[in-house]
Amino acid sequence: MSISKLRSLQTYRDKRKSRAASSQRGFEKLHRNFEKFSQENYNKGCEDLIDEMKLASVEDSCDIIQEWVNWLDIKPVSIRTYFSDLYLYLYYRGIRLTSQDIKLNIDFPKNIQEELHPLSLEEYRAILEVAGFRNKAKYLCMGSSGLRPIEINNIRKKDLELDKKRIIVHVPARFTKLKRSKTTFFSKEAEKLLRPILKQLNDDDKIFGITTEGNANTIARYRIKAGIDEKYDNTTRRKINAMSFRAWFITKFSRHDPNLAKLLAGQKGYLLQYDRMEVDELLEKYIEYEGDLLVYDTARSESKIHALEEMNKDKQKLEDKVARQDQAIGKILSDLEDLKKKS
User: Fold this and answer.
1) DSSP 8-class letter at 206
2) What is the pLDDT of residues 183-224, one digit of tens each?
3) CB count, 10 Å around CB of 242?
4) Region for residue 64 given its phi and psi (left: phi exceeds 0; alpha: psi -120 to 50; beta: otherwise)
5) Residues forming beta bridges with residue 238, ordered by sequence position
6) pLDDT beneath 70, residues of the chain
7) Quick check: helix, strand or coil at residue 319?
8) Which residues have C-beta within 8 Å of that of residue 80, sequence separation ≥ 6?
9) Which CATH class for the 121-293 domain?
């Protein structure tokens, strides 16, 4: 009795149902892309083309993949992502290419490493000025917490602790990139806009009412309206996007404590000493560095400047006092010399 089962597009979709929704969407996008390539270049659907590739030699299959790579009109790093999805699907369908087959037969374009654009305070404010109230609150929350778009969009009211010095955010593991839960904070500045929104929500409601859709289109409208829609050279990628607010947090916080910045942002590589810190300890550290994350509420920064100015004044007063004392001592010594000469 045979137990072999037909491996098809539908069985592959069924197999991947346990994966994250973003991963499933990524494959569907890849499949539509390969379908379009097959129709344009071979005048047949991609499933028929894959069936023929199963009977072809390794070299011929690689030649077809190379044609597809050359046909793609996207940035090199995206081609690698697309190929990763295609490779897994082809392998599932019985086209068993090895890493050596790929290395010897397929050439990928080199990834151009652009110097990433740092979001400036003026650009941050320009976006907030044209954003609606809810998105203004959202962008302030992202910039003060380091949350990714998918994380901020899926946070529910019940994931927040609202009775501390700052709002504490507990991000469920299923929404993080590393599939590991994490804790971060919203600034006092972001909290001012978020509190009125939270009053209208139930515990299970998402604080910004959406999942993962609409980020790119929304920020694109604001960029255009604010007049800051520049893109990197030789690419369609814009210099400012939804991840710019996360980069703002990491950049500002890393100047004080790079490892703590990685921990709060949910990146790899932070020192394990922070795993032993209580949330209240992390919060105190966050408050200590919070001033650099602020966009509008500059009172904290201004108070620091005022304190430095006062210290400088005190220093100047002390220096003046020392100078006067030096003059007085000099005069006393001079008078003593005069007395010695007279005697």
Assistant:
1) B
2) 999 999 999 999 999 999 999 999 997 644 445 578 999 999
3) 20
4) alpha
5) 231
6) 1-4, 112-114, 210-216, 234, 269-276, 298-315, 342-343
7) helix
8) 108, 111
9) mainly alpha
